[in-house]
Amino acid sequence: MTKSNSDKFIPVVQELQEFAFSQVGSMAILRVLGYGLLLLALFDVVATFIPPNFMNPVWEFQTFGAIVERIPVTLIGLVLVFYGELHARAKLEFLTLRLLSWISLLLAIVFILLIPVGVSNTIRLSKQSYTQINNLSQQQISQAEQVEQRLSQAKPEQIESFLKSQGRSLDANNPQELKEKVLSEVSQAKEKIKLQAKANQSSQRLNLLKSSVKWNLGAFVTAALFFIIWKTTNWARSR
Predict the structure, then answer these.
(1) Please, are residues 102 and 227 in contact by the beta-carbon 8 Å criterion?
(2) Higher-scoring residue by pLDDT: 161, 220
(3) Where in the chain are the domains?
(4) Which alpha helices (DSSP H) does the chain contain, by range?
(5) Is the pTM of this model over 0.85?
């Protein structure tokens, strides 16, 4: 190769070197960002578990959902940390990469195991919500029945006096008609309580089911992604 030909390749080599240096700088920034995101995710998870209240299905279910919804930050952080594989790594960084690779597998297993827990808590909360709403409606119906019983035994004049003390208008033609009207209102109130209880139970069940499906499917997808990260980072473990 003549001198003139070699001179032509000098600018090309310089451009390639500048490109390589710029790539190294970009990877360093992305990796630092990745480590930062992992630390922030760790702080968030620790805060989610404080104060702990294990064996409480409400706390367990809400904590499970909070972790699943915050996991994208962890996944992005891992991808950024592993970006570039072994290129331009510090010697002390290889141990960290190996550890993060194995942690990815551990997290995949953890999220798979969390799915049965999420389903179990969904069933427990559904039964608990049904029981609470049912007990409340039964108390209200019982109170209405007590009022109905007292009204049935009360004289029309006593009912009229009671309604006047409550500031209600009297639009009945006679005391007996007034008594029957009030008893009818109490009976309608009992039916409304039953219908409202059924509506509340249906609404609570639907909201619980939506959250459960969302978070359990999210846990499954999260486990799959962590497993893929572990699988594709064999280079970090075999170093």
Answers:
(1) no
(2) 220
(3) 14-164+171-237
(4) 3-48, 57-82, 93-153, 156-165, 175-232, 234-237
(5) no
